[in-house]
Amino acid sequence: MAAWPLIRLIPRSTHFRFVRWAPVAAVISVLLILGSGVSFFTQGLNLGIDFKGGVALEARTPATAPIDLDKLRAVAKGTGAHDVQVQGFGAPNSAMVRFLPTEGGNATLEANRIKAEIVSKFPGMTMPAPTVIGAKVSGELLLGGFKALGIALLLMLGYIWFRFQWQFGVGAVVAVFHDIILTLGILSVMQIEFSMTSVAALLTVIGYSMNEKVITFDRLKENLRKYKSTPLREIIDLSENERLSRTIITGSTALLALGGTMIFGGPVLFPLVFTMVFGIIIGTYSSIYIALPIILVWGLKRGDEEAKPVKLGAASRP
Predict the structure, then answer these.
(1) Residue 6 DSSP label
(2) Is the N or the C terminus of the chain less surrounded, counting Cβ atoms within 10 Å?
(3) DSSP 305
(4) How far apart are CA 226 and CA 222, in angstroms?
(5) In terms of one coarse class, where is the protein primarily found (predicted)?
(6) Distance CA 177, CA 21 (A)
(7) Residue 271: Cβ within 10 Å count
(8) Closest CA to 180 of 216, 146, 141, 215
């Protein structure tokens, strides 16, 4: 199999001093977290219909007549409905139309009016009775979504704690919370809609971030056994230089795939893909500048007092 031609642009050996920039990265992270907190308290998250409540209408056409989603979206918005969302629902001849009812109005009457206007523009289309999502149900969905995030986080962190030393667990805990806070922060700052798909994206971000931590810790653990008397900061630099090419290849491949979807996927997919793209970037950053520096601060007892330097130029692509 022919090698990817651009792989020649990735150096076989690097000798970056990652630890040297850890204090600067820590200041940047603290400022970003503070900014996220300010955004949470001033404008909050832009909750979607899933979490605010609303009306859902399922549209169906004959199997031989797929629904034109762009036309359906334009017609639905033309009815005067607020915060209209239109997306495919299963088969090509099925779609879901969601909107927020007018405050203080009768949601059922408004849904029937909008339903009638849409059906009149699409011959053969049928719509079952509308589904009204109340505030109580939407609140339960929001709580359930964050519970799912919490359970996933606890399970992954428990694995890290079990497999590595407790210092690694602390580093992973802080780094993943850092990733979640900053991801929610940018969604709040940019007022990107936060819905159940955003929860799914956050779960993916947690999984990717945790995977990066495991790979980082595995390489560090291997070098800790290999260089038993070398200063910890030098082993951290060596380990990150050894896995740098792997990080570049996997990260850039994921970003290229998601980047195309983010640009051409339309407004329905944008919140999901944007969250994943930002999560991949911040997850890679936190593996190097949050998880590892915390391990360095806490230190590891290795039973050696002598320190033998290691040449970073010896690091090679795995």
Answers:
(1) G
(2) N
(3) -
(4) 6
(5) membrane
(6) 21
(7) 21
(8) 146
Residue 310 CB partners (closer than 8 Å, separation 6+): 227, 230, 234, 235, 238
What is the chain's mean pLDDT, rounded? 78
One-letter amino acid for residue 299 of the chain: G
User: pLDDT tens-digit profile of 203-246?
Assistant: 888 888 888 888 888 888 888 888 877 888 888 888 888 888 77
Measured at the alpha carbon of residue 302, what is the angle toward residues 153 and 283, in degrees to the nearest 5? Answer: 30
Tokens linked to 258:
């998601």
The type of residue at 197 is T
pTM of the model: 0.74
148 three-class SS: helix
pLDDT of residue 189: 92
- If we measure between CA atoms, which residue out of 162, 271, 255, 240 comes closest to residue 208? 255
Least Cα distance to 292 among 1, 60, 8, 17 occurs for 17
Q: Which of 252, 176, 167, 184 is nearest to 212 (CA)?
A: 176
Pairing of strands 82-89, 91-100: antiparallel
First and final C-alpha spacing in the chain: 18
DSSP character at residue 68: -
Q: Where are the alpha helices (DSSP H) in 106-134?
A: 107-121
Nearest C-alpha neighbor of 308 from the set 227, 221, 220, 225? 227
CA 23, CA 313: separation in Å to the nearest integer?
Answer: 24
Nearest CA among 238, 209, 177 for reference residue 19: 238
CA–CA gap between residue 176 and residue 232 (Å, rounded): 22
